[in-house]
Amino acid sequence: MGDPVKILEARESVGFDAIFDRYYANSGLNPESVHVFLKYMATEMYLPMDKLRPTDRFDVELSQRTSEWDSGFGLVLDEVMRSAREAGVEITGKIESIDDYIRWMCAIEAASGKPLR
Question: Alpha-carbon distance 44 to 33, whole Å?
């Protein structure tokens, strides 16, 4: 297996509409919210949004970009936990992938009744 950073950067670019259609079309999630959370993740991972996939895992595909203690992944986890606490949502399970992050943030946003970003 090659360098995760080089693999991500060499990936085919995929636009948001294609990502949404493939991963979230029948999810009932708000497309605007999914877009906002995916864009935030791209910013935190220092990658173009069109290179990320919801299936990317923080400890595998994004392992060279994150660690539990760095600003990216640590801030992401902190944000999910803080937002959940404020909305009265209990996080059950791990947040291991971009998809986990997006789905939890959408659930928290729905519970809070207001946009989180």
Answer: 17
